[in-house]
Specification:
Shape of chain B: rod-shaped
Largest sheet of chain B: 5 strands, mixed
CATH class of the largest domain in chain B: Alpha Beta
Strand content of chain B: 5-15%
Strand content of chain A: 5-15%
CATH architecture of the largest domain in chain A: 3-Layer(aba) Sandwich
CATH topology of the largest domain in chain A: D-Maltodextrin-Binding Protein, domain 2
Strand order of the largest sheet of chain B: 1-2-3-5-4
CATH superfamily of the largest domain in chain B: Histidine kinase-like ATPase, C-terminal domain
Helix content of chain B: over 70%
Oligomer: heterodimer
Structural class of chain A: alpha/beta
Number of helices of chain A: 20
Distance between the termini of chain A: 69 Å
CATH architecture of the largest domain in chain B: 2-Layer Sandwich
Number of helices of chain B: 14
CATH class of the largest domain in chain A: Alpha Beta
Shape of chain A: elongated
CATH topology of the largest domain in chain B: Heat Shock Protein 90
CATH superfamily of the largest domain in chain A: Periplasmic binding protein-like II
């Protein structure tokens, strides 16, 4: 009896000690991200934003340390993350590559955020661009928050247009305006019988489809629709555009030499190449600026938005702290502002983008962009579309690219060709 | 414990052990294979490609392995508890439920690649199964297990990393070998299980046969015993008759012979010497007197032993208790009253009626429940013997009823009997002053 009591006491003591240790033990959160920019542009200090966020978070939460593994290249990141997940050692918070988002959300690697989002008084999801927030949703449930985004804009060679006496198109220009300018600038300037000045480089049917309101893929990525009348418009337009250069291939070199009037560019590329020193290195021979993409007959001056997502691991043992850290990284206005200065992307909080301070920071960090009003960018962001993010999107797109290219080249019956392409893509998607 | 096992049971236990060992081996193999493959996938940088083919994030390799092996160890422990643990029936059901739960857990941590462990649970259930009335229960449990296994499959299918995905990591020819091995392992398990079931059924069947043969032997012994009892009764009767004859011969015969001889002498002497006759008559009277004493003594010897030794109340209770114990009839005595004082002959009649009544209830009525009620009413004492036997519409005389009636008639008593829900017998004996008076009148 006495021994039993002593044992009980010892057990109680042990439990108290354990509980004490458990509650006060140093808590460590880990963050997974890659080195370099999310938007495939050179970036100087890719961890600056995170460092700042960590500093702020650790100040607010004493006793909590945040760690991250540096030096993982963007190309290796997807595999690195998958390995961590298989080993069960994934970071508490990690950047989710867009093409992996659906996969990780569907296999339950990501923690659903809706409860934290609704339960947190200090969190208001309506400050985000709706499209950016939607990008972190899978089947209607939020699994990740956006941290930054870029949109695709149309690059305009001001020098070339000025030389041809063509004014820079307004932001609400159409395919017809686009085609006319292309036709006007495409010519043989040195008289060697070969065209050496072109209208556009790197304008793909995807961008045309986007600005003509063609939803190519179903939400779940199980089927594609190429056979609508809108898509026919797209293909007819692409064929006309293609015909302008008379079959001659426009190259990146032509563009770099200042011999191409238009090129779609992401905002990150714009920001990277516009300021010194990149501007000097790459395009020193001409003045340039950006406007919205031209609108198709059935669409608008839309754009494609690429969003960088951060999510919480479903197996993280510190869900509450992880949410707080995620909020610091993706929601804190100070950090959002820093997206403008420390990265080549844009903040995803609309109020931050449209603030006067942001415009000031932007003008300071991107000299020489008189045309670029952040209000315009914000508008573009608000009505831009996001790329589908089902797992085999890239492969399906490449396949479609290939097939459509041939369809345009062969100039066969358009609707037949399109149904053929649709059939092939559907077979691929349903496999 | 071991000495209580028949060789058959020992063989069964041995096979069960083999089944457990084999399943353990398979679990170890499967878990090991999947864990190693997972590690290999990580080292060969194909983690991302692997994850895209999965519906979930699998457990880390080592954890998954530990979970499987741990769950299996728990399953074995629960199985042992269920089979041999000295626990109550309710607790045993709880243990079995836990066993099924662990079974499902194990299947899940093995990614449903191996469902043979369900058979282990079924083997446990079959081991405990006994008696015909449980066969429905058993059928229900088996169906339940089957559905659970399928349900498990349906529910968890989207929540596990299938074995095929692990196998798909290897070259196609290796894949087919792996699948063949897996299917072989599953089939061998089924073979072992069926063997176990066959042995189990055989063992149960033999046990049943043994019990049946024992029953038969018992029945035969019973028949012999009954014949012997009848024989013994007859012998006792003969012996009693002989004793009676001897007694009559020794006492009454002797006395009567003496009296006849004396009377003969008287006849000769009556005219010659009347004085001597008188003397002789006195001698004869003494002899008769002596004879009466002898007869009384003999009659007394015929009285039941119990009545000799104890009062009527106890004697009646004793005969009831003894008969009940020996025949298995449930006899209930309701005592509403006993007369204060009874004559010896009255006691004997009452005793005999009770004895005869319950014997008849058993012998002719095949009753297994008899109620004996005795009580007093003003002026009479009554005994009612009611049984739940077959009854008898027109009782044949010779059931001892006439004998009872005769005995009662001597005491001015009355016997009534009828059949409803068995057979009921009512005997009344007049009591008290009136009776005494009547007796007095009769005597007078």
């Amino acid at each position: 009896m006495k021994r039993g009591f002593a044992l009980y006491l010892a057990f109680l003591l042990f439990m108290t000690c354990f509980l004490g240790w458990y509650l006060t033990r140093p808590k460590v959160l880990t963050v997974g991200l890659f080195a370099g920019s999310n938007w495939n542009v050179p970036e100087g200090d890719s961890y600056a934003l995170l460092e700042e966020a960590i500093k702020r978070f650790e100040a607010e939460h004493p006793g909590v340390t945040v760690k991250y593994v540096s030096g993982i290249r963007k190309d290796d990141y997807s595999e690195w993350l998958a390995e961590r997940l298989l080993k069960g050692e994934e970071p508490d918070i990690f950047v989710v590559p867009g093409e992996d988002f659906n996969l990780y959300a569907s296999i339950g690697a990501l923690q659903p955020l809706d409860r934290s989002m609704n339960g947190d008084e200090s969190f208001d999801p309506s400050v985000y661009y709706p499209r950016a927030l939607d990008y972190g949703r899978y089947q209607g449930i939020s699994y990740a928050l956006p941290v930054g985004a870029v949109t695709t804009l149309m690059f305009v060679n001001k020098t070339l247009l000025a030389k041809e006496g063509i004014p820079i198109p307004a932001n609400n220009w159409t395919w017809q305006d686009f085609l006319q300018i292309c036709k006007a600038v495409t010519k043989d300037t040195d008289g060697d019988g070969r065209l050496d000045q072109f209208g556009v480089y790197d304008y793909t049917w995807r961008k045309a489809a986007l600005t003509n309101d063609v939803p190519i893929f179903a939400e779940d990525g199980r089927s594609a629709d190429f056979s609508g009348p809108h898509m026919e418009e797209v293909m007819r337009f692409m064929a006309e555009l293609h015909a302008v250069s008379k079959g001659q291939e426009v190259t990146a070199k032509d563009f770099d030499m200042g011999r191409v009037a238009f090129r779609p560019f992401s905002f990150a590329e714009y920001r990277t190449y516009k300021p010194y020193p990149w501007r000097i290195k790459k395009y020193s021979s001409f003045e340039w600026d950006c406007i919205k993409l031209p609108a198709g007959p059935s669409g608008g001056n839309g754009s494609i938005m690429q969003t960088m997502l951060v999510g919480i691991s479903a197996r993280s043992s510190e869900q509450r702290l992880a949410w707080e850290l995620l909020k610091t990284i993706c929601y804190d206005p100070v950090i959002q502002e820093m997206v403008l200065t420390k990265s080549q992307g844009l903040p995803v909080r609309r109020d931050v983008v449209e603030s006067a301070r942001a415009q000031e920071l932007f003008t300071n960090s991107t000299p020489g962009s008189d045309e670029m009003n952040l209000k315009t960018v914000s508008e573009v962001m608000a009505d831009s579309l996001t790329e589908p993010k089902f797992p085999r999107y890239k492969e399906a797109m490449n396949l479609a690219d290939n097939r459509l290219f041939h369809a345009v080249q062969e100039n066969s019956s358009l609707s037949n060709a399109l149904s053929q392409v649709q059939k092939e893509i559907n077979i691929y998607l349903q496999r | 414990m071991t000495e209580a096992y028949t060789p058959e049971e020992r063989r069964l236990e041995w096979l069960y052990g083999l089944l457990g060992l084999y399943n353990g081996l398979v679990v170890l193999l499967m878990a090991g294979f999947m864990s190693l493959t997972q590690e290999k996938i990580i080292t060969t940088m194909s983690a991302h490609a692997f994850l895209t083919t999965l519906p979930i994030v699998p457990l880390p390799a080592f954890k998954g392995f530990l979970a499987s092996v741990g769950a299996y160890a728990l399953l074995l422990l629960l199985g042992k508890l269920y089979r041999h643990g000295g626990i109550a029936s309710g607790q045993r059901h709880l243990v079995f439920a836990a066993e099924i739960g662990v079974c499902m857990l194990l299947m899940r941590s093995l990614n449903l690649a191996y469902d043979g462990v369900v058979l282990l649970a079924v083997a446990d259930l079959m081991h405990r199964y006994q008696g015909e009335n449980q066969s429905w229960l058993l059928l229900g449990a088996m169906l339940g297990l089957y559905f659970m296994a399928n349900y498990n499959l349906a529910i968890f299918q989207r929540h596990v990393a299938p074995f095929d995905v692990y196998a798909a990591y290897y070259r196609p020819e290796v894949q087919s070998v792996l699948l063949a091995i897996k299917n072989g392992l599953i089939s061998l398990n089924i073979v072992l299980f069926v063997l176990y079931l066959v042995l189990l059924v055989q063992s149960k069947h033999h046990e049943k046969e043994r019990i049946a043969s024992l029953n038969k032997q018992l029945e035969e012994a019973n028949v012999r015993l009954r014949a012997y009892a009848i024989e013994a009764e007859r012998t006792a009767e003969t012996r009693e008759r002989n004793r009676l004859a001897r007694e009559i011969h020794d006492t009454l015969g002797h006395t009567l012979t003496g009296i006849v001889a004396g009377l003969d002498a008287c006849l000769v002497l009556v005219d010659a010497a009347p004085g001597a006759v008188k003397k002789q008559m006195e001698k004869i009277r003494a002899t008769a007197q002596h004879g009466i004493v002898d007869v009384r003594r003999s009659v007394k010897k015929l009285r039941p032993d119990d009545l000799e030794k104890m009062p009527l109340k106890q004697a009646v209770k004793k005969v009831i208790a003894e008969f009940g114990a020996s025949s298995g009839v449930d006899i209930h005595l309701v005592e509403l009253g006993w007369p204060e004082k009874l004559r010896e002959d009255e006691e004997e009649v009452i005793y005999r009626i009770v004895q005869e009544g319950i014997t008849n209830a058993r012998r002719h009525g095949k009753a297994d429940k008899v109620t004996v009620t005795c009580g007093l009413e003003p002026g009479r004492f009554y005994i009612i013997i009611a049984d739940n036997g077959t009854g008898c519409e027109a009782p044949q005389q010779g059931f001892g009823l006439r004998h009872m009636e005769e005995r009662l008639a001597l005491l001015h008593g009355r016997l009534r009997y009828w059949s409803d829900n068995g057979f009921t017998l009512e005997a009344t004996i007049p009591m008290g002053k009136n009776v005494m008076d009547n007796n007095g009148e009769d005597n007078g």
